[in-house]
Amino acid sequence: MQNPKLLEINIRLLVRRFNTEDKKATLSDIPYSYWEKLAEQGFEIVWLMGIWETTSILIDRCCFEENLIQSYNRTLKDWQRDDVIGSPYAIDKYEINPELGTREDLLQLKKTLNKLTLLLMLDFVPNHFSAETELLKAHPDIFLETTEEILSSDRHTFYRPIQQPHRIFAHGRDPFFPAWIDTIQLNYYNLKTRKFMTGTLLNIAELCDGVRCDMAMLTLNNVFGNTWRGVINEYLHPKPHDEFWQSAIATVKKDHPDFIFMAEAYWNLEWDLQQLGFDFTYDKKLLDRLKDGTPKNIFDHLRAASAFQQKSSRFLENHDEERVVHSFGMEKSLAAAVIISTIPGMRFFFDGQFEGKKVKLPIQLGREPIESKNKTVFNFYDKLLQITKNEIFSLGEWELKDALPVWEKNHTNENLLTWLWMYSSQHCLVVVNYSSFTSQGRIKINTEGFQEFVPLTDLLNGKEYLRLAEELFYSGLFVELGAYQAHLFYY
User: Fold this and answer.
1) Residues 446-454: contacts with CB under 8 Å, at least 24 apart
2) 134-171 pLDDT per residue, tens
3) DSSP-assigned letter for residue 171
4) CA 464-295-214 angle, 5° bins
5) Nearest-CA neighbor of 27 among 12, 40, 39?
6) Can you say whether the dihedral through the CA atoms of 391, 394, 398, 404 is positive or negative?
7) Tens digit of each residue's pLDDT (9 = 90 or more) over 39-90
8) Pairing relation of β-strands 260-263 and 210-213?
């Protein structure tokens, strides 16, 4: 799939919007028109975050730490204890949460989405399960077990599960942060674990068209080994020769060749994961550069190899990130939206982004605050989504271009990010002033095959311009843009 649009939806919040006085809504209560609207906006993939069953007994134990309570107070002023429903990433088992519906409801939704040419993506959390998962009864050996001595040295990272009180296991963790106490760590040096998790992926593949793989780099041999050095019993479980992802993805794609794998990935390991079979990997570095970097930082990032760009997932917000209108400011956020919507790779959006929502809700909460729609943001995205439905942005050839100075001492051209899309006889030149002041530049355009004049239509504002083909070729198109403004010239 080339340059697809993806929308992430917190499904636990979405179904609540369709509750009635008599009934709590489930998947089957979401109206067809809701999904139809997404298809009309040009989306190809819908990621329903939080579909799987979790363990309610962990809520009281893990979801009322001081830092979490502070986050609830900031984001949902009138929150009640019943609003805290636990992390969707502490999965008990890969069965649909019964509060959201049944397996049949999920299969019917997939059928509905596919009919609308939408693909369904769900979560896969390779690193861990819920700290009290039912799997501790049937498959305790797939988890990372350790000793009394290690437990006594770190009672935050290690614990005794209620279901296995005489055994000691590790909580899941990212090596740069404290352990997640509502989870239990899988042992990826154990071949039984790899087999079990590959089988889990095969089962998930019967229910959807792709998976977003949480913290996918944590299962890489070197990362896992470095994170758990001194805990892994390498006599029983020596370091495997191959990587889990390479074999697991190949196994799934043997039966489901079009199944999509998207990796949440950081630490400059995105390319490595792409080489192991991932169709798309998070491009967090671009988000950071859009937020705090310079236009040159962004331009240099976009000079990466085409193969890497095509498999990069570009986003401004998701359930882990701050809302972009809040973190960037409105004008800058809209300029950034033009950028991620018109460069190669996956264009990844988050439910609420189009309304200009500002509150980043903790994932443990099952109720969202009421926020008024920002009409300026909403209307801008509505237009941008319609513009980028044009096949030139999905099937076309992309070329990064330089903006040249208008005169010697004017360096504001360095603030202009520009690229060209070409498909059949269609062209679209994108120019974004990614700075806080007015900038000018010239962009040379190959006008071979055009008559004396070239008609340019700015798709963002509907204005039309007529320019001499000779001037565009030799001197370049003169552009002057205000702070965080953009042109999408179609010709």
Assistant:
1) 446/473, 447/472, 447/473, 448/473, 454/491
2) 999 999 999 999 999 999 999 999 999 999 999 999 99
3) P
4) 105
5) 12
6) positive
7) 999 999 999 999 999 999 999 999 999 999 999 999 999 999 999 999 999 9
8) parallel
Q: Please give the structure tokens belonging to residue 386.
A: 């319609």
As to burial, measured by CB atoms within 10 angstroms (0-12 exposed, 13-18 middle, 19+ buried), residue 408 is: exposed
Neighbours of 435 (CB within 10 A): 20
Q: Are the C-beta atoms of 62 and 132 separated by less than 8 Å?
A: no
Q: What CATH fold (topology level) applies to the domain 396-490?
A: Immunoglobulin-like (2.60.40)
Radius of gyration of the chain (CA): 25
Could you tell me the residue ranges of all domains in the chain? 5-393, 396-490
Q: In the chain, what's the furthest Cα-to-Cα distance?
A: 84
- Per-residue pLDDT of 452-476, as tens digits, reads 999 999 999 999 999 999 999 999 9
Which CATH fold topology does 5-393 show?
A: TIM Barrel (3.20.20)
In this prediction, residue 449 carries a pLDDT of: 87
Task: Provide the β-strand partners of residue 45.
Answer: 6, 119
- Site of tokens 């798709």: 459
**Collapsing DSSP states into helix, strand and coil, what is residue 347?**
strand
The pair of three-digit structure tokens given for residue 253, joined into one six-digit string: 């794609």
